[in-house]
Amino acid sequence: MNASGWAVGKKVGRKPAFTEHDIIRAAMDEGLDTFTLAAVADRIGVGATAIYRLFGSRDEIVTACLDAVAATIALPEPGMGWREVLRQWANECWRICEDHPGLPRVVYSYAPAVTRITEVLDAYAASLACHDITSGQAGFALDFLGDTVFACHLGVQAMRAADRTGATGLDQVRAALGGTHSILHPHESWQQRGLVDTKVEFILTGLEHHWPEV
């Protein structure tokens, strides 16, 4: 009690004017592989220390971002053939790379990243199981295709990136090769999906003849 007779309790602070979703969105907009707490805070108009009201560390934000990405991955529909299932998986891997800059680098540099899509992988494995494909075989195929697509996207990002002069990676490759005759033939497709679909179909054809297990 104070002199006026009113009870004195713990002072209630102002509620944060932002949500976990705001932080996740800001981190994705900054780039999953490069965002800083300061940059995220600046985007949502708060001080950097305010972020700790909702997340204890940068890694916690990364994990939350990966969960948000995983929630957007389309799952197989009933009745899909195994090739359709794997093509969809490859397409979804490419889409999330396109939608979320920096995602491939995070997947390869942040060890727990793969644990955020266990439910997605289980759903794809269950769909493949309808075609007598074991969980080990499904794991191999999903990993092989995912690695192929993510690695290809890393290369595409390098071809798209521009230096201080505005020259893209593709421009730099062309300049480095000059007029020399080489097996390399730089093409605009290097900045797009390029040979991704060809590689996916090559893998599917190989699986028709031999399907390893992990």
From TrEMBL:
Q: Which UniProt keywords apply?
A: DNA-binding, Transcription, Transcription regulation
Give the InterPro entries listed for this entry. Answer: Homeodomain-like_sf (IPR009057), HTH-type_TetR-like_transc_reg (IPR050109), HTH_TetR (IPR001647), Tet_transcr_reg_TetR-rel_C_sf (IPR036271)
Pfam families, sorted: TetR_N
* Residue ranges of DNA binding: 36-55
Tell me the ranges covered by the HTH tetR-type domain, including all copies: 13-73
In Swiss-Prot or TrEMBL terms, this protein is called TetR/AcrR family transcriptional regulator
Gene source species:
Nocardia acididurans
